[in-house]
Design brief:
alpha/beta; 16-stranded parallel β-sheet; 3-stranded parallel β-sheet; 12 helices; 26% helix
Length: 427
């Protein structure tokens, strides 16, 4: 007959493995395991992750227990071994300010590497967060973020990743200046963001994301020679100057969705000519249509291109391809509501883009509605694509009958192809 201990295989695991399992639970659930057996009684005290979650679905009385669970953590025998602190509070009806300082103070130590705090209510963040020299990743989301601004008070020498989602952050510039080794920066500007006169980026950055939902963002200078990934999504007509002042020779991925004067967009693209992968959203492309006569920059290293458009403008698309001489993968996405806009007819290019015949291997068309200009567009690539291997088509109609799909498939399958290895694929 098996003994009770033999049946309890989980308790027989090593402390390290059990602590790893507990790290995926909330603080309350982790502490609750102390009643399982003598083996589990003090195990939670060595937990290296502090995870606090409280949302609007909880009752007011639950918040009292929520705070108590945090107090318990502050009384652990080994509080300084925590490497990750996570707090999520989606309610604005309770005061999170008082317990926050207590919890963070208890988590601070030589092993703390990650802090992630998401709050719905305004909060004054304790200064000790920005003095943690072991911190590698810091994520703060709070519409009204307040931090004591003291000269030379911030010290984050080990920080590699910084993510801020704020409505107001007067400490932003000072915070960036104290992160000499920062590699990943994500700035999310909420609606109503109070703009700074100027935001300069660090030269150590490898990944930069700028998301602006407000009316004003301020002027931004990108001086990042090591940058590999750039994602800019600023839909504001009152954004300040967006400029690049360094050569981005390491640039790999670029995604742009910006509402700036077309001249500013062209200047920005001219600085990004070393990119290997480029995605242009509908807002950015609309600027070119409205600009009239603005020439698309040359991209000599670009191998992957994505265009998200309202409707198929063959003249614009072909002009872009003329400036991407080594392009291997091309994706065009026509939005569903573009049918309410003007649709241009197919215009046969006077000069075929060199990449179509020599390098293009994959073409993907999303939002296909089988308009005449769309069929002619695809026929051109099938006829001219000498090294084309794959053409993928995703229908734009939500309720397309099986018979209609079969008819479209049959029509496109009969189009002549120059590449005998080209596969036609449908969603």
């Amino acid at each position: 007959m098996k003994t009770k201990n033999e049946d309890d295989k989980i308790s027989a695991l090593s402390d390290e493995l059990l602590l790893h399992i507990l790290s995926f639970l909330s603080v309350t659930d982790s502490v609750a395991t102390c009643v399982l057996s003598r083996r589990w009684r003090n195990l939670w005290e060595r937990l290296f992750v502090s995870d606090f979650d409280y949302d609007d679905g909880h009752r007011q009385i639950d918040f009292v227990e929520f705070v108590k669970s945090g107090v318990i953590i502050t009384r652990r025998k080994e509080p300084s071994n925590i490497y990750k602190f996570h707090l999520l509070s989606t309610t604005s009806t309770v005061d999170i300010q008082s317990p926050l300082a207590t919890w963070i103070s208890a988590a601070l130590g030589p092993h703390l590497q990650e802090i992630s705090i998401t709050l719905s209510s305004p909060c004054f963040f304790p200064l000790c967060i920005f003095r943690c020299k072991s911190l590698v990743s810091l994520c703060l989301e709070c519409r009204h973020m307040h931090v004591e601004t003291i000269a030379n008070a911030y010290q984050l020498p080990s920080l590699k990743k910084l993510e801020l989602k704020v409505c107001s952050a007067s400490c932003l510039i000072s915070l960036l200046m104290c992160c000499p080794n920062l590699e990943t920066l994500e700035l999310h500007f909420y609606k109503g963001y109070t703009p700074l006169l100027h935001i300069g980026m660090l030269s150590s950055l490898k990944s930069l994301t700028l998301l602006g939902l407000g009316k004003q963002v301020g002027s931004i200078t990108i001086n990042t020679p090591l940058l590999e990934h750039l994602n800019i999504n600023l839909k504001s007509t009152k954004c300040g100057t967006l400029s690049v002042t360094s050569n981005l020779h390491s640039l790999v991925h670029v995604h742009l969705n910006i509402l700036h004067p077309v001249g500013d967009v062209v200047k920005l693209l001219n600085k990004l000519y070393m990119a290997q992968c480029l995605s242009l959203n509908v807002t950015t492309i609309t600027n070119f249509h409205e600009g009239g006569g603005m020439e698309f920059p040359e991209f000599h290293r670009l191998v992957r291109l994505e265009l998200i458009v309202n409707y198929l403008d063959s003249s614009f698309v072909m002009d872009v391809l003329q400036h991407c001489c080594v392009l291997e993968s091309f994706q065009i996405h026509c939005l569903e509501y573009r049918r309410k806009r003007k649709r241009t007819c197919w215009t046969q290019p006077t000069v075929a883009p060199s990449c179509v015949e020599s390098h293009l291997k994959t073409l993907e068309f999303r939002g296909y509605c089988d308009f005449e200009e769309e069929r002619t567009f695809l026929a051109y690539f099938l006829e001219r694509g000498l090294v084309l291997k794959k053409m993928k088509i995703f229908y734009g109609f939500r309720n397309l009958s099986v018979d209609r799909k079969h008819q479209i498939l049959k029509t496109l399958s009969t189009l002549p192809r120059s590449s005998n290895i080209c596969q036609l694929m449908f969603d």
